[in-house]
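User: Show me sequence and structure for the first protein, then do the same for the second.

Assistant: Starting with the first protein.
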Amino acid sequence: MINTAFSKGECLNHYNWGDDCHGWTYIDTEVLSVKQELMPPDTAEQLHYHEKATQVFFILKGRATFTIDGNVTELKPEQGIEILPGQQHFISNHDRSDLEFILYSYPSTNNDRINIK
């Protein structure tokens, strides 16, 4: 087996989401996705949940505020959190600097995101 090393410049896909947020996909299979995402100050995603996917967020830079099933948790660099299938959640950046994190989803969240209005 040959292992492949990669960097942000060699990601599979760069994408934009939300209010000027960015993402880089490193692994994207049915069973696992690994992404790095960046959220500028004062941004948030929409409340949602996943029926099948478990997600693990690991903070690289900045402070992340997670709302999970109505409970608020703040994480700083080198901290992580697991979000289980069915948990309603969203991440926000209330800080004055960019928020960067690694996001592991297993299985992948492709076609497994239900937004809540």
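Switching to the second protein now.
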Amino acid sequence: MAIQWVDVTRRAENHSVLVMDLAMETMRQNKIGEAFGLSKPFAPKHYRQFAGARWFAQEDIDQYVGLLKQASHRGDLKRMGAALEKRMGETRKGADEIARLDVRNASWEELEEAFQRFCQIAIDHWFQIYHYIFLGYFLPDEVTAEVAAKVPDPEQQSAYLLTLFSSDKPTEMREENLALLQLAEKIHKEKLDVHSPVVEELIENHLQKYAHLGRYYFRSKPYSGENIVSRIEHLTAEDIARKKKEFAEQRNLPQKAKEILRELELSKETTDKAYDIKQYAYCSNLGDECYNYLVHQGAGLLQEIARRLECTWDELTAMRHGEILEALRKKEPLSPSKKNELRERIKDHAILLEHGHISILTGEALKGYYAREAKAEEKFTHLKEFKGLAASHGKATGQAKVIRNIKELDKVRKGDILVTAMTTPEFVPAMERAAAIVTDEGGMLCHAAIVSRELHCPCIVGTKVATKALKDGERIEVDAVKGIVRKL
């Protein structure tokens, strides 16, 4: 019987093979099953990266969602959310240990041992890898149902729910944004030159703490001084005043959520679910931030491995972790034929996990797979308006800028509407410039939803059609109260 594949997360382009291989190893080592405390192993039978997206078989989704529902009904999500947050801290601790290694003077055996440690940290990190996505299939709806029964006005419902679903804890992105704002305010007030030694030192201090937030797994680079200067130069005095007010409001969100819960007198079960949503909203962002920190702190190790294997960063991360370990044991540069194979993977690939076995398709095999698996893309340019989920309140009008990969992010100018499949940490500087954000994918716990609430930027997620219905330069209205995108 043919597999019923479901595209569960799309980030505009493929992750590197190394990211996917380690994530699949998380599944093969039963880390997901351990997160649920299962006596029997649990791993998806069919999982893949293909055509820029991550896919599950429908039967695996049903089983995964079923386990999460059982955990929710047992009241286990609080424990699991706390365990997830603790694991993120362990990732950072392990990353710092790797950063302290003298990899330049390490033997081949020591390098292999260090890389094995790096991989195991990454494998352990994702033990609740898709929890936040599949919790979004039912948990927000269960809270929404009780709120809607008590609050008849749709706009008031939405306002309450956004407060209830917002994290009580500041993400690292929010902390970085506030630090950047304070730096920009100092520059404005003291009329400092952004290229002066005083400001350069302040920026360097900022980068020492937050540079890793510019990364996204093994692609993208850490924030640079040039990135920080550009972001500061986009902030006017009016922007700074407005954002200071917004940050003050965010600090009051936990108290506002408590007041809403008291006012509505929600059941204990629903109240617990609201706090579970808050925790997983926080952890979904934290998961990316800590993995990016691991890559940032491990960059010296990976660069030394690439140097000894005489390959580029992209070629190294196009390998499975077992291939890298095998190459380290040989103690010699990669062969020309291996490099050619890796370059094919960089161009495009499909990586599949089927009944515990991992395979990679490139070249002619990949073309055949596309022919069998890819569906013709439906056209939606005729739509005058379409709906999605209002993830961050507000309204905005502006020019649509359709972003299909991270190389196009510079297209987004101040006041534009950022339109994409789904955002990632690399998008944050562009999200700061945008008047509103619209995505094809996602729910209340996705990156775009969380970050847009942190930025107080109107956002509609889960439209399914935005990147197909809109063209660059079209003037549109985003009503992120009603969840409607309208062409003007």
